Amino acid sequence: MNRTLKIAIQGGPASFHETAAKQLFPSSAISTISCASFPELCQTLESGLADFAVMAVQNSLAGPLLPNYRLMAEYGLSVTAERWLLLDQTLMALPGQKLEDIKEIWSHPIALLQCCDFIQSQAGVTTKETSDTADTARILKEEQIAGVAAIASRKAAELYGLDVLNENVANDVENYTRFVVLSRQQPKKLANKATLLLPYPVVKFSLESLLEKLNKCQLELTMLQPLPSTNPGQPAEWVLEMEGDETACITQLLALLKSVAPKHKILGLYPKAEAPLPQDRLAGCLSDVLKAQPELV
To answer: What is the rounded distance in angstroms from the CA atom of residue 46 to the CA atom of residue 69?
Structure first.
């Protein structure tokens, strides 16, 4: 009999991370370890308390969660799988509360960003950032906080007995987040998607030559973003994601990178998941960088 896998997630019961974990391990018995933050999630996996971790890295409305790529590198973790999840960001409050009773909306900062259009339409309503969507729903119920609504999943409303004040309040009903599985093991050798960190500046390596090599290897560039620098005045690394139809294409490009960016880091080699939206509808992955930064050197 297979043992139960321990999966570290950010948040608790009825969180989107819990839902993603169940979908990413459909054939396994799992138990989740709730973590209050992404650094805690990485620490939990690194320490061996968890077998794997599931972490959000990209949202179709808010863009990539770039600090999470930095965490992968810092803790030496590797991406082994990915999945897109449709989020049903739901407004909820204590039973009997009406929308006109709400003075504050609480949720995780990324959820608040995803729902900013709705929030701004509510005159006189302020917001408060919390560590997790579902846990915010729990706090409202346990502490019986009136005048405050939470944004979380419908599952959270059902679990904690809250009234739904408004269905999906995201800026777009097609609100997807990409979750990845993290492991302490080294990346697999064969895969059709890769996540890399490139040093900046990259000697003899421009965006033009990168695109040329991607095209030569029949690969699609799906993310190119500079990571926030940890040292003021020091250049950041670049996170690069690419995918193709054949595993040999990834292998070929990695071989080419050795001559132009020998210090690149491989954060993951894994099977690509089908993107739910066209690339041009995924916020902040390529367009801003391509317009503002013609070269990486």
So the answer is: 15
